[in-house]
């Protein structure tokens, strides 16, 4: 437990310093207040993941924050890409009662889908004006429809291949997870970023997340200390990563 708190302090100090250094560069792609809001959400999520004794308290604390920021932010896709890498995808099965064996495993990316992307998908479904504008710009030929159909065909193939071997419950769970993990992120991201500036902002947010994690990865490589491993241990989840060394360096 003490090692987890030490890792938390190191992650926070490095993250705050990197955000401060990169702020002048990335405020070229996003408004200053948007940068501050997204940075604060990243720090809040990381803090909750290290301090929460289980994933349920983590979800209880972070879900309202994700929903609030997603509703206020002008580009929720940028928020999604920034905080997607903030917490490892540690999975814990949702507890069930009665005859149902299990529902599905909850992790950080699925929580983001539920609290960030799903509300955005509902809003996009109500915005007919934007859809008409995109159709007018694209004209009769709409390449997005082709990509949509290819993705749906791929998802259908995934469920059809296992249909003879799956129980009805398992089949329903597999279909739900494909919609949540694949279809929802694709459809929201592909339709929410309606301008070149919005796409650049979302891409910049993902690059910012990677740059925040880069010095932490270098520290892990040099010191052999897996900083985020304590989160899964606290949540009593199956271990995601095992240390693999090349010489004295962590791979």
Verbal overview:
72% of the residues lie in helices and 3% in strands. It has ten helices and four strands. A hairpin with a 2-residue loop joins β3 and β4 (249-250). α1 (2-26) packs antiparallel against α2. The radius of gyration is 20 Å and the shape is globular. The two termini are 24 Å apart.
Q: What topology, given as strand order, has the largest sheet?
A: 1-2
Overall number of strands:
4
Question: How many DSSP H or I helices?
Answer: 10
**Approximate helicity band:** over 70%
Strand fraction: under 5%
Secondary-structure-derived class: mainly alpha
Seen as an oligomer or otherwise, the chain set is single chain
Q: Low-confidence runs (pLDDT<50, min 5 residues)?
A: 136-141
Q: Please describe the biggest sheet, giving its number of strands, its sense, and whether it closes into a barrel.
A: 2 strands, antiparallel
Radius of gyration (CA) equals 20 Å
Question: What sort of overall outline do the alpha carbons produce when their principal axes are compared?
Answer: globular
What is the ordering of alpha helices and beta strands?
A: HHHHEEHHHHHHEE
Q: Mean pLDDT, rounded to whole units?
A: 84
């Amino acid at each position: 437990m003490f090692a987890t708190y030490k890792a938390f302090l190191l992650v926070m100090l490095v993250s705050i310093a990197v955000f401060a250094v990169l702020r002048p560069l990335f405020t070229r792609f996003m408004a200053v207040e948007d940068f501050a809001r997204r940075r604060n959400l990243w720090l809040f999520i990381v803090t909750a993941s290290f301090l929460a004794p289980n994933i349920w308290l983590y979800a209880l604390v972070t879900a309202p924050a994700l929903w609030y920021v997603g509703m206020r932010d002008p580009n929720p896709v940028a928020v999604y890409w920034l905080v997607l890498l903030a917490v490892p995808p540690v999975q814990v099965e949702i507890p069930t009662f009665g005859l149902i064996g299990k529902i599905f495993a909850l992790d950080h990316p699925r929580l983001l889908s539920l609290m960030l992307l799903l509300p955005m998908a509902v809003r996009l479904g109500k915005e007919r004006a934007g859809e008409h504008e995109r159709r007018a710009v694209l004209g009769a030929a709409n390449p997005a429809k082709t990509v949509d159909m290819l993705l749906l065909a791929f998802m259908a193939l995934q469920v059809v291949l296992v249909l003879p071997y799956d129980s009805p419950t398992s089949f329903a769970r597999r279909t739900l997870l494909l919609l949540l993990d694949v279809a929802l992120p694709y459809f929201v991201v592909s339709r929410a970023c309606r301008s070149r500036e919005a796409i650049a902002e979302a891409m910049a947010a993902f690059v910012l997340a990677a740059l925040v994690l880069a010095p932490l990865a270098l520290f892990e490589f040099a010191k052999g200390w897996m900083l985020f491993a304590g989160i899964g241990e606290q949540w009593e989840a199956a271990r995601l990563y095992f240390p693999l060394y090349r010489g004295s360096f962590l791979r």
